[in-house]
From TrEMBL:
It is an enzyme of class 6 (ligase). Residues 109-310 form the ATP-grasp domain. It comes from Nostocoides vanveenii. It catalyses: 5-phospho-beta-D-ribosylamine + glycine + ATP = N(1)-(5-phospho-beta-D-ribosyl)glycinamide + ADP + phosphate + H(+). Pathway: Purine metabolism; IMP biosynthesis via de novo pathway; N(1)-(5-phospho-D-ribosyl)glycinamide from 5-phospho-alpha-D-ribose 1-diphosphate: step 2/2. Belongs to the GARS family. GO terms for molecular function: ligase activity. Keywords: ATP-binding, Ligase, Nucleotide-binding, Purine biosynthesis. Pfam families: GARS_A (PF01071), GARS_C (PF02843), GARS_N (PF02844). This is Phosphoribosylamine--glycine ligase. Its EC number is 6.3.4.13.
């Protein structure tokens, strides 16, 4: 079996690592990949970038691949999965129409309403007057979301009405500007990836990520600064409840609308005082949650994704997980997320590898002299594992401590509250073991 993975981040490095380790996989090709991926797979550039469907199809045909896995959201929204399917190539990733679940928050809210999915109250706004009315109606903390793709950085949550209005104005100033104003959801957040072939839904293990740039959830939103799995504080039956009340109704409604969803539905949840509520849908694996979820997956990832791509998910084998926790910590470039400074030299990556930790590349490149340098805001992830969260955190941070990048920064509190058993679910403060 040959597999082509589209993308170049740490998420794709995690996907390639899992797929390449599968005995049934003969070869993995990554387009364009990154220096870390190049150590375990064949990488090649994509003419015109990953949103160029014709170029992706050409690469898939030239390598005679049996499966294409699309990592980032942009090529999905642009219809690259449609181009591949039109060429008869099994593809894991939704069509452009189905990818509207991430491409438009207003569309996602409509689907949730039609499917009866519990989520935050929301107002879709296209004018400043509508924004002001919505902010007053829902109150603070104010939640203002850009309707379109924003790489995880299009959301502002603030008690400052002027800051909320400023973000809204910036979003509305764009062509076809539209925003969603939501009620604030209390409670801890959970990420759950649900694999679907358009009909059957199989959940992966839940994870929690950290969006804010600084410790104690301070500073602006980012693409994600770290994650961990499993969630020892999650209520029993959470995964099954989310599948039955959220994922399946959404998948069913998409099929009813002739937009069958084939790929991974990323369900971002808040465990509120009124029960689980959807914060957002994404239509691809999340970064950095993928890094910890796949680190714990024992079952063949390639077979699972191929079954989804070919409509055979109801025949897929049961998933098995390592019980040991995994923690990932993201190293960011100086100035990230507002104005990342690129080009810094990276050192110590070989020393960072151990029996309990490894490095996944994200925004890295090699210059003409072969020196590894930062080329993106989020530069790399380290993944640590251990018998418990304390050991997993220690492994991840020990690995990060061996890596050098002048001015680089990372959060030092990933999974710290969970390690201290300090996460409370509103109206249900009982500590219970997660079912997964």
């Amino acid at each position: 079996m040959k597999v082509l993975v589209i993308g170049s981040g740490a998420r794709e490095h995690a996907l390639v690592k899992s797929i390449a380790a599968d005995p049934m996989v003969d070869a993995v090709i990554a387009a364009p990949g990154n220096p870390g991926i190049a150590q375990i797979a064949h990488c090649e550039p994509v003419d015109g970038g990953v949103t160029n469907g014709a170029a992706v199809v050409e690469i898939a045909r030239r390598h005679a691949v049996d499966l294409v896995v699309i990592g980032p959201e942009a090529p999905l929204v642009e219809g690259v999965a449609d181009d591949l399917r039109d060429a008869g190539i099994p593809t894991f990733g939704p069509s452009a129409r189905a990818a509207q679940l991430e491409g438009s928050k207003a569309f996602a809210k409509r689907i949730m309403a039609e499917a009866g999915v519990p989520t935050a109250l929301a107002h879709v706004c296209t004018t400043r007057a509508e924004v002001e009315e919505a902010l007053d109606a829902l109150g603070f903390p104010y939640v203002v979301k850009d309707d379109g793709l924003a790489a995880g950085k299009g959301v502002v949550v603030t008690d400052d009405r002027e800051a909320a209005l400023a973000h809204a104005d910036a979003c509305l100033a764009r062509p076809d500007g539209r925003i969603v104003i939501e009620e604030y959801l209390d409670g801890p957040e959970v990420s759950l990836f649900c694999i679907s072939d358009g009909r059957t839904v199989i959940p992966l293990a839940p994870a929690q990520d950290f969006k804010r740039v600084a410790d104690d959830d301070q500073g602006p939103n980012t693409g994600g600064m770290g994650a961990y799995s499993p969630l020892p504080w999650a209520p029993p039956g959470l995964v099954e409840d989310v599948v039955e009340r959220i994922a399946k109704p959404t998948i069913d409604q998409m099929r009813n609308l002739d937009m069958p969803f084939v790929g991974v539905l990323y369900v971002g949840l808040a465990l509120t005082s009124r029960g689980p509520r959807v914060v957002e849908f994404n239509v691809r694996f999340g970064d950095p949650e993928t890094q910890v979820v796949l680190d714990r997956l024992v079952t063949s990832l390639a077979e699972l994704l191929l079954a989804a791509a070919t409509g055979e998910l109801d025949h897929a084998e049961a998933l098995y997980w390592r019980h040991e926790p995994s923690v990932t910590v993201v190293l960011a470039a100086p100035g990230y997320p507002d104005a990342p400074e690129l080009g810094g030299e990276l050192t110590g990556l070989d020393d960072a590898e151990s029996d309990t930790a490894y490095v996944l590349h994200a925004g890295t490149t090699r210059d003409a002299d072969g020196v590894l340098r930062a080329s993106g805001g989020r530069v790399l992830s380290v993944v640590g594992s251990g018998a418990d969260l304390a050991e997993a955190r220690a492994a991840a941070y020990a690995s990060m401590g061996r890596i050098g990048l002048a001015g680089g920064h990372f959060r030092r509190d990933i999974a710290a509250r969970a390690e201290r058993d300090a996460i409370l679910i509103p109206a249900d403060h009982a500590r219970k073991d997660s079912p997964r």
